[in-house]
Write a structure and sequence with these properties.
Shape: flat
Structural class: mainly alpha
CATH topology of one domain: Serine Threonine Protein Phosphatase 5, Tetratricopeptide repeat
Number of helices: 20
CATH superfamily of one domain: Tetratricopeptide repeat domain
Length: 351
């Protein structure tokens, strides 16, 4: 390869990394496939493809590509890091143990904030908060002084039962990042734990009566969760709807509203809940709570044909998720059986 082509492809490589960081996965996949057409054996390009597949939910294909690279380059840091992320995603005890080993090795090779983050996260997921805390104590403060690692520090302290210290960490972070909804919610939940549920709920209700609370998404979500857990479903639905008027793309409100609507007795509300859950299912067909609620609602509404259509759409979007084939076959049989039953009843009535 001449120098000009090499520099062009190198620039394309970093462009793809930027696309990945921006979440523009389809563009990234198209670009990396073009690179692989030129150099089908290029390991860096294969790893880029594996990363794209991983972020798009194609875990099995990403893992196979990653393993293929590691067979030839067992110490490649890019491949090992991606392998570690895949293992964290799998979440089994064996996978998490291996993820800890990988990130420990990588961190020893290069002590960077990014690798510190992934090693701490591996310890947390492996339920080893003490090891995570000991690691934090052993590294320079400059290495851990960023918002992502400080968030993990809060999680570690909670796992260790040191709630007041965790609250201090989150409150300081929230002071520096006042628009961070996740931090605000963690602070509310910690105060609930420290003050006791009854006292905490009274405080939340008192705050909720203030005029400023009407557009506070975090507070509205907290009130909605309280109502849902107490069985006050209509109140919870109303609160989630208020959130969505302020923040239409709020993931938590959309999902929980979908779950609540499909449990009602109102057919219009059930169908509205189906539409919400359908969007989440199409993003991740392997999300069991979403799939279970969606399928149950569609069967309850006698909409098996619609269920099949949703499954076929999911398969088009996620051809690597092989379980969908089995679900399609199962519901095709149910539709066929229902059709036969209908024909039989029709013939009986004619006779």
């Amino acid at each position: 390869m001449n120098r000009q082509v090499y520099m062009e492809d190198k620039a394309t490589f970093f462009t793809i990394k930027e696309l990945l960081r921006a979440g523009r996965l389809d563009e990234a996949e198209k670009a990396v496939l073009e690179l692989l057409d030129k150099e089908p054996k290029n390991c860096n390009y294969k790893l880029l493809l594996a990363e794209v597949l991983f972020k798009k939910g194609g875990i099995e294909k990403a893992e196979r590509l990653c393993q293929e690279i590691l067979t030839h380059l067992p110490n490649d840091s890019y491949a090992l890091k991606l392998r570690g992320k895949i293992l964290l995603n799998r979440g089994t005890k064996k996978a998490l143990k291996e993820a800890v080993e990988i990130f420990t090795y990588l961190f020893r090779q290069s002590q960077t904030p990014v690798l510190l983050y992934w090693l701490l996260l591996a310890y947390i997921k492996a339920k080893r908060p003490k090891a995570a805390w000991e690691l934090l104590q052993s590294v320079p403060f400059s290495l851990q002084d960023n918002i992502h690692i400080r968030r993990l520090k809060g999680r570690i302290l909670i796992s260790l039962g040191r709630y007041e210290e965790a609250l201090t960490v989150y409150e300081l972070l929230h002071k520096e990042n006042p628009e961070d909804v996740w931090l605000k919610k963690q602070i509310l939940l910690l105060k609930k734990h420290l003050k006791g549920e009854d006292k905490w709920e009274k405080e939340i209700q008192a705050i909720g009566r203030l005029p400023s609370a009407k557009r506070d998404v975090t507070l509205l979500l907290t009130q909605a969760d309280m109502a849902r857990k107490k069985g006050r479903m209509e109140e919870a639905i109303s609160l989630y709807e208020q959130v969505l008027k302020i923040a239409p793309d709020n993931w938590e409100a959309n999902l929980n509203l979908g779950f609540l609507l499909v449990k009602t007795e109102d057919e219009v509300k059930i169908d509205a809940g189906i539409e919400r859950l359908k969007q989440f299912f199409l993003r991740d067909p392997y999300d069991h709570p979403v799939r279970s609620a969606l399928f149950a609602a569609l069967k309850r509404r006698d909409r098996l044909q619609d269920l099949l259509a949703i499954l076929e759409e999911a398969l088009r979007r996620h051809p690597q998720k092989v379980k969908i084939y089995g679900w399609i076959k199962r519901y095709e049989k149910m539709v066929e059986f229902d059709n036969q039953e209908s024909e039989s009843r029709s013939q009986d009535s004619e006779g």
